[in-house]
Specification:
The complex is a heterodimer of chains A (716) and B (290). Chain A is α/β, with parallel strands linked by helices. Chain A has 27 helices and 17 strands. In chain A, a hairpin with a 5-residue loop joins strand 8 and strand 9. In chain A, helix 8 runs parallel beside helix 10. Chain A is globular. Chain A starts with 23 loop residues before the first helix and ends in a 7-residue tail after the last helix. Chain B has 290 residues and is of the alpha/beta class. Helix content of chain B is 30%, strand content 23%. In chain B, the strands form three sheets. Chain B has an eight-stranded mixed beta sheet, with helices on one face. Chain B is globular, with a radius of gyration of 20 Å. The chains are: A alpha/beta (716), B alpha/beta (290). At the A-B interface, helix 21, helix 24 and helix 25 of A face strand 1, strand 2 and helix 3 of B.
Chain lengths: 716, 290
């Protein structure tokens, strides 16, 4: 029934173009950045010699490098831009610290809002205060001095910009140009050394601090931008010192400049998936630590900007709940419908419940963000990394698909299941053991980054050395839907309906189903699998899910490491296919199987609603690192007013049913195939997988194919 | 227990009434529209679908069939003799490649309701529900009535997508349980209507008036096929009809699309050749906005 093409009144409609609220100059600027003109102009670091730092402690080395970069990195200043500062060195786009050429840090959301509250002056004060207490070891003193050096470097870099602006001002040959530069100089006069007092200063502070981190190689995420900036805008609007249109232009420049690395030569990711990704997510709306709603003018202005300019980096996630205003739901849906999957949603109340159940205090749980991708963390307090593994590989090993050995016999399904759970437990023990033996990565130490992570100053310890409140190693299970499906089919075929023996199925799998097509067909088609709201298949998936999270919760811990379980494949189903053999669900070896915790391609027969119901039947409260669901919908199914209503209904239902994180790509297969053939015609066609977004045309063929595989749900 | 013959159920439909809807396609239709996009829905009995691309020529279907439906011609090509097929489905079970499928299976009200319940939260969040389509859902009046009774009890909004070609007593049977109709007006001139669909339109127009007069929620839809029913007289007549029956909603224009033709090979129908849609002639008429 799945591939039956039944047409139910397909409509031809044209959508009205997005209302244009931004100036033509801003559109032109966006086009320039999006075309990679700025990114392609980036250069490698060409000053100094890192050997000069040999022998210094790692923190000092990093701080000295930051100092070098602040003093010598090329500046990019354009009087037509409303914000000043630019991360101009190529090495940073390679996930490296320029000058040092050591690996840098991503998957982290820092609390840049500290700078808004205190200014660099206030942060410097904190460091001095900590040093003055006199209770630190010498290495901790050295570390805090390195933080101090990094703060001073930020000041040097700021002054270089002010000097350059002043020179431009004096040389300007039109009054208009001089006025623009005067205005920029006025904004730059007191911040970021001192806390901002208005919206213009606040957004410049945030931009400058963030882009300085990136200049020095760090890739922090910004997190809750509307929560930081909203109050400044509210005050200025009330005082009449800014208009909504002016604020929107400023935010547009923030987004445009945030895409300055597009086109950078050899940027991270280009050698892997084809497109670059810098883990710079932004989160909107939701409640603050006190439980008050954050949503404000900045929330809507940011959505205006991305709806109009279609900039996919920064990827946006919105925290939603039963309290979310209808206007915000519709705004999210409108942005999603434009395609490119720029806006995703978190089920705020569920995430907060999961975090408090895991042990985080309520106030911290309420402040959650992602880490720059989609994984949930407590921002500004967490050193995060995750460890992915393939649970299907464990089943393959158990059934010895890759060997000629005697086929394992299991008297009952329970025997088989127990053996699988035991093997999963062994794999997780190995994970914990490796984490517990982990030593701080000296090479990645960054006092500049740690400045914006709570307790690093207090503890005199780096982000990578247990400085923050929380150091997280999240195990990420992949392949669970295929394990559940395999076990479900084996249970039904062998133990319930007795249509075949386990030996027959394993023999078929060992032969990659060659010569066993009839059995393969029955394995593939006789039972509804996970993703169809089928009670039996979903129950198997839930059982596995529950056992996985329980096993993780029982892992032995040493020290302060936290192991919040997560589930993901991101795009690893692509690399894992090489090791994947034939499955009990009739798939041949090396198939691209289920992404994350979604249905395996081609097994969904109940459309998108079936996938959502199966997914949402899991108890995500026990999965504090979370799991994404990526859905592809065709543009035609969302056309017209009713298409928008339907999309809003889909989002609301996902939250109501207890989903965790939902990412929707509005694109059809035909368009993707076209873009694969004629990349030049689709330069800005963006697809998003979980926290990652990419311009489709730039991806390598394997990744394009994987994404096209995922469109099987895009019914028109 | 009463069963209906269903040939498809599609979830997350957004063009068949308000909100997110599940469309249940019932087999059997008294009309034979030349442009029919669901030709597999016309005959009341189950019919065989054959996908050549999946066939490996293993002959298992031929071995399983007692009526010599599956044969191979001189050039080694699989020929499906559909006139001999009784719809027993043995070949479908025998085929290891999924090349054969029996389209149209009997489902109870509970079977269909179970499928709808998967989508209930989506219906409630979006103002959606069930749309019964086909075929012609009123060609299975007893099942349609029973299903609608059940959905009404379950709190599921329901619409019938109909050609209007049924007896008035059939409409009366379902009226208490259905929330509205999507009602096709294919051609206002009766003799043209007969040419295009095999039946005159008197009964259709009569039923429409009666539905209007009794206060039913009716949205008029106009399938428009260029060169066949896009002439000015028809468009004007629909305008006049709408003016005369002010409580009717619409009309929604349903432009012809050629997707139905893609099915012809699978079901062994003759292809029909229609001009591509000339949208410019339909300017000024709304689509399925609601």
């Amino acid at each position: 029934m799945t591939d039956m093409l039944t047409i139910s009144g397909g409509q031809v409609r044209t959508e009205s173009a997005t209302e244009s609220r931004l100036s033509q100059e801003t559109h032109d600027l966006a086009a320039k950045y999006q075309a990679g003109i700025v990114g392609r102009s980036m250069k490698r670091c060409a000053f100094g010699d890192p050997k000069s730092l040999d022998g210094l402690p790692p923190a000092t080395q990093n701080a000295k490098a930051v100092e070098m970069l602040a003093n010598h990195a090329p500046l990019r200043i354009d009087a037509d831009e409303l914000l000043v500062g630019s991360a101009t060195l190529l090495e940073a786009t390679w996930h490296q610290v320029p000058f040092l050429n050591t690996p840098s840090t991503s998957h982290v959301t820092v609390s840049l809002e500290k700078l808004l509250r205190l200014g660099y002056a206030g942060l410097r004060e904190q460091v001095s205060e900590r040093l003055s207490r006199g209770d630190l070891r010498p290495d901790q003193v050295t570390y805090l001095q390195a933080i101090g050096t990094s703060i001073d470097a930020a000041g040097v870099w700021h002054r270089r910009h002010v000097d350059a602006l002043r020179e431009l001002h004096d040389a300007a040959n039109s009054q208009q140009q001089r006025n623009k530069l005067t205005s920029l100089l006025a904004t730059m006069a007191k911040v970021p050394e001192n806390p901002p007092t208005n919206f213009r200063e606040a957004i410049q502070t945030l931009w400058e601090a963030w882009t300085f981190q990136r200049l020095c190689g760090n890739w922090p995420s910004i997190g809750r931008i509307d929560w930081f900036l909203g109050p400044y805008l509210k005050k200025d609007l009330a005082a009449g010192t800014i208009t909504l249109d002016e604020a929107r232009e400023l935010l547009a420049h923030f987004w445009i400049k945030g895409s300055e690395w597009i086109g950078a030569e050899g940027a991270f990711g280009t050698g892997y998936s084809g497109d670059a990704q810098f883990y710079q997510n932004v989160i909107l709306a939701g409640i603050d630590e006190n439980g008050d709603e954050v949503v404000n003018e900045v929330t809507y202005l940011v959505l205006d900007v991305i709806e109009e300019l279609h900039i996919s980096d920064f990827p946006i996630a919105v925290r939603v709940s039963a309290r979310t205003p209808e206007a915000l739901w519709r705004k999210i849906a409108q942005c999603q419908r434009h395609g490119g999957g720029i806006v995703s949603i978190y089920n705020e109340d569920l995430v907060i419940r999961a975090l408090t159940r895991f042990g985080y205090p309520l106030e911290e749980a309420r402040s959650f963000t992602n880490d720059g991708c989609w994984e949930v963390i407590i921002p500004g307090k967490t050193s995060f990394s995750y460890v992915p593994f393939d649970t299907l590989a464990i089943l393959q090993d158990l059934l010895q698909i890759d060997e000629d050995a005697e086929i394992p016999a299991y008297e009952s399904f329970e025997d088989l299941y127990t053996a699988y759970r035991e093997a999963l437990s062994v794999a997780l023990d190995k994970f914990a053991d490796e984490c517990n033996r982990w030593c701080p990565a000296n090479a990645q130490i960054s006092p500049l980054l740690s400045l914006f992570v709570d307790n690093c100053v207090e503890n005199g310890a780096d982000y990578h050395d247990y400085g923050p409140n929380y150091t997280v190693r999240s195990p990420h299970a992949g392949g669970l839907p295929d394990v559940a499906n395999s076990l479900h089919v084996i249970n039904q075929m062998v133990y319930v309906d007795r249509k075949a023996s386990l030996a027959e199925i394993v023999t078929g799998m060992r032969a990659n189903w060659n010569g066993h097509e009839s059995l393969q067909n029955r394995c593939a088609n006789d039972y509804l699998l996970y993703g169809n709201a089928d009670p039996l298949a979903d129950a198997m998936a839930r059982r596995l899910f529950d056992d996985y999270v329980t096993l993780v919760s029982q892992l032995p811990k040493t020290g302060d490491l936290l192991f919040p379980p997560g589930i993901s494949t991101f795009g690893r189903e692509q690399e894992w296919r090489n090791n994947r053999l034939a499955t009990a669900t009739g798939k041949p070896a090396h198939s691209i199987l289920a992404p994350n915790l979604s249905a395996s391609a081609g097994t969904e027969r109940r459309g998108v609603t079936g996938v959502v119901r199966s997914f949402c039947s899991m108890n995500f409260e026990a999965l504090p690192n979370g799991v994404p669901l990526d859905l592809m919908l065709s543009p035609s199914s969302l056309a017209g007013d009713n298409g928008l209503n339907a999309l809003v209904g889909l989002l609301k239902t996902f939250i109501q049913l207890g989903g965790w994180y939902l990412q929707i790509n509005v694109v059809d297969r035909a368009t993707l195939l076209e873009a694969q053939k004629h990349p030049d015609q689709f330069p800005n066609l963006t697809v998003r997988i979980s926290g990652w977004s990419a311009r489709f045309a730039t991806l390598c063929p394997e990744w394009q194919e994987m994404i096209i595989e995922r469109t099987s749900l895009a019914l028109s | 227990m009463i069963t209906g013959r269903v040939f498809d159920i599609q979830q997350f439909c957004t063009h068949d009434g308000p909100g997110i809807r599940t469309v249940v396609f019932l087999k059997g239709c008294p009309l034979h529209c030349v442009w029919c996009h669901n030709p597999e829905g016309i005959a009341p009995r189950p019919i065989l679908s054959y996908l050549e691309a999946r066939c490996t020529g293993c002959l298992r279907c031929a071995e399983a069939c007692e009526h010599e439906v599956h044969q191979w011609n001189d050039r080694g090509k699989h020929v499906v003799n559909r006139d001999r097929c009784i719809g027993c489905g043995r070949c479908v079970t025998a085929c290891p490649n999924g090349a054969l499928e029996l389209v149209g299976r009997d489902m109870t009200v509970d079977d269909v309701l179970a499928r709808l319940m998967i989508d209930l939260p989506f219906f409630l969040a979006s103002g959606g529900g069930l749309t019964l389509s086909g075929g012609e859902p009123l060609s299975q009046p007893d099942f349609t009535e029973s299903l609608l009774r059940a959905t009404q009890t379950a709190g599921i909004h329901s619409l019938i997508e109909t050609s209007g070609f049924a007896t008035w007593s059939t409409f009366e049977k379902v009226l208490p349980y259905v929330d509205g109709f999507l009602y096709d007006i294919k051609e206002t001139d009766s003799s043209r209507h007969k040419e295009l669909t095999g039946q005159g339109n008197e009964r259709i127009l009569q039923n429409l008036r009666q539905l209007h007069d009794c206060g039913a929620d009716v949205t008029v839809r106009m399938p428009i096929v260029p060169g066949l029913n896009d002439h000015q007289a028809h468009l004007d007549a629909v305008d006049a009809m709408m003016a005369e029956m002010p409580r009717l909603k619409g009309p929604e224009v349903m432009p012809y699309h050629p997707l139905g033709r893609s099915k012809c090979a699978r079901f062994g129908f003759d292809d029909h050749d229609l001009a591509t849609l000339n949208l410019s002639r339909l300017k000024g008429r709304s689509g399925s906005e609601r």
